[in-house]
Design goal:
heterodimer, A: six-stranded mixed β-sheet, B: two-stranded antiparallel ribbon
Chain lengths: ~250, ~300
């Protein structure tokens, strides 16, 4: 389903990703843990080509992301083709990034209309269904600033789901939330995981990783240090750096 | 932790407190005697000025009212509006590509836009207008065709009338400022918005006019309104090209009858009225684009008035 091989990425002289290999099967939940600055978010952003990979390849459903292969050459795709690929990969941001001038309903409907060319009535019907799924059916007409952080993030998740994505990437979806609002967003994530949505989640919520993840990946310094089932990685880490990180997080 | 809670208390404590003995403490608002003195002074000055307006024969209100709605004045007013409209529309149409070029990652486009804005902000409008009016001396013919190849040519003098020169000068001048205003507006939109739109696969053009532009408008509008009001008044400069706009026309009239002050007042009052109309337009346009930016829109002055009457 998802296949990353030898992904490298530098910003200027700083090498953020130093050869990452990662694969995940359809319907599985992968949680990426790691200290800040370890390259987790960059890795996520490389998967939907928000960041261009310097070296290595990203494939989703066998399809090369951002490039077209011709013999041993990779031709960069046009903006339009990349946008088409992105429409099938959901992305949920740490800061929600809802469109503040559109209502919750319009936020969820917008890309359905413009990226998938659904009719307005189809899009709004789907948007209503999804707002019901994230338990916000009664706030469809509200603007993002009239919603709490947790509600905004649930709208953002509905917005990502609206395009029927093959997989959804979550970039620290609860990090910008007040502690008492984290639960409502994690509930939605658990619900999605239970429905067999393919997800890659960057988070610091160890509890979520333990109960919802199929695979936990620990990253440090631009590399994957350790990976395995949650109980293996979280309860019996093999690597020194994983142990050091977990001991700080699990106080 | 201590400081916020102390500040919070001073704000949130109700005005009445009880002492240990149970007596009620009464809050006495501070007195501001100087405020009263300043108010009185300003009112006296205002009264004096109003008195002067009414009693000083120099204002010559009879002449003022005689010419305020006079046919040639109204016609010249329409010309002023035409110049403003043409200058604003062409100016902002020119400003959009200038802003886009300036923000482009293509260094040639960016530098060309920068240079255009530099030049047209540097040259005084008056000087520029005279340049355009005299373009015929500089380039006798204009040619349309393949660069450095064959083409059709026109005599420049026929092509640019004095009205054309005025519109051209105003529009090119406006475009430089409009370009900067639009650029500032586009920059004010959070980069997360671009990212979210890109991550959702929304097509590039739709990203611009559906997601970015409506948010940029919040920052663009107040400055654009300023520019528009400025343009309205700047049209008075084109009198130098002998175009019969409002200011030119009142000059013609007072040149004939010698009543300078009342006729300048005719022009002044019209400029004030037009600016007031633009301000109303600005208020409602800004309100339109404020959707979602504030939690709840405050009522308009009109709605406040209606509510006050109902009560």
């Amino acid at each position: 389903m998802i296949e990353l091989t030898g992904v490298h990425k530098s910003f200027g002289s700083i090498e953020v990703l130093r050869g990452v290999d990662l694969s995940a099967k359809a319907g599985t939940v992968t949680v990426i843990l790691g200290p800040s600055g370890s390259g987790k978010s960059t890795l996520l952003r490389c998967i939907n080509h928000l960041e261009k990979v310097d070296r290595g390849t990203v494939r989703v459903d066998g399809e090369l992301i951002g490039y077209r292969q011709n013999g041993n050459r990779l031709h960069e795709l046009s903006e339009r083709q990349i946008l088409k690929q992105r429409a099938r990969i959901g992305f949920v941001f740490q800061n929600f990034n809802l469109f503040p001038h559109l209502t919750a309903l319009q936020n969820v409907a917008e890309a359905q209309i413009s990226a998938l060319r659904r009719t307005t009535s189809q899009a709004y019907e789907k948007a209503h269904e999804l707002l019901e799924l994230v338990d916000l059916w009664d706030r469809a007409g509200a603007y993002p600033r009239q919603l709490s952080g947790g509600q905004q993030q649930r709208v953002a998740i509905a917005r990502a789901l609206a395009l029927d994505p093959k997989l959804i990437l979550f970039d620290e979806p609860t990090s910008a939330l007040d502690p008492e609002l984290v639960g409502e967003v994690l509930d939605v994530l658990r619900d999605l995981a239970a429905r067999g949505t393919t997800m890659i989640v960057v988070t610091h919520e160890i509890g979520f990783a333990r109960e919802a993840a199929d695979t936990v990946v620990f990253m440090d310094d631009g590399r994957i240090v350790e990976r395995g089932r949650p109980d293996q990685v979280l309860d019996n880490p093999q690597h020194e750096r994983t142990r050091a990180f977990l001991s700080k997080v699990l106080v | 932790m201590l400081l916020p809670s102390v500040i919070g208390m001073s704000v949130l404590t109700p005005p009445r407190q009880r002492t240990a003995a149970g007596d009620e403490l009464v809050v006495v608002p501070a007195r501001h005697p100087w405020r009263w003195a300043a108010t009185a002074l300003v009112l006296v000055l205002l009264a004096q000025f109003t008195h002067g307006l009414v009693t000083n024969p120099g204002w010559d209100w009879e002449t003022f009212f005689g010419y305020f709605l006079e046919k040639t004045v109204v016609e010249s007013l329409l010309l002023t509006l035409e110049l403003t409209f043409a200058g604003a529309v062409l100016g902002f149409l020119g400003g959009i590509p200038l802003a886009a070029m300036r923000l482009s990652s293509n260094p040639v486009l960016s530098v060309v836009s920068w240079a255009y804005i530099w030049v047209f902000r540097s040259v005084p409008l008056l000087v520029q207008l005279l340049f355009w009016a005299n373009l015929g001396y500089l380039y006798e013919t204009l040619q349309v065709g393949i660069p450095f190849g064959p083409g059709f040519s026109f005599p420049t003098v026929n092509l640019i009338s004095s009205f054309g020169a005025a519109v051209l000068g105003l529009a090119l001048h406006e475009a430089a400022y409009a370009g900067e205003i639009i650029r500032a507006g586009l920059l004010s939109v959070d980069s997360g918005q671009h990212e979210a739109a890109a991550a959702l696969g929304i097509p590039k053009w739709r990203q611009f006019y559906r997601i970015v532009l409506p948010q940029a408008m919040r920052a663009i509008l107040p400055n654009a309104a300023n520019l528009l009001v400025n343009l309205l008044k700047s049209t008075s400069i084109v009198y130098i090209l002998a175009i019969g706009e409002l200011f030119y026309q009142v000059q013609v009239i007072y040149g004939r009858n010698g009543r300078v002050v009342p006729l300048l007042m005719v022009a002044t009052v019209w400029y004030v009225i037009l600016t007031a109309l633009l301000s109303v337009l600005q208020y409602y346009t800004e309100r339109h684009f404020a959707r979602g930016a504030v939690r709840n829109l405050p009522p308009t002055p009109f709605q406040k008035l209606k509510a006050a009457i109902k009560r």
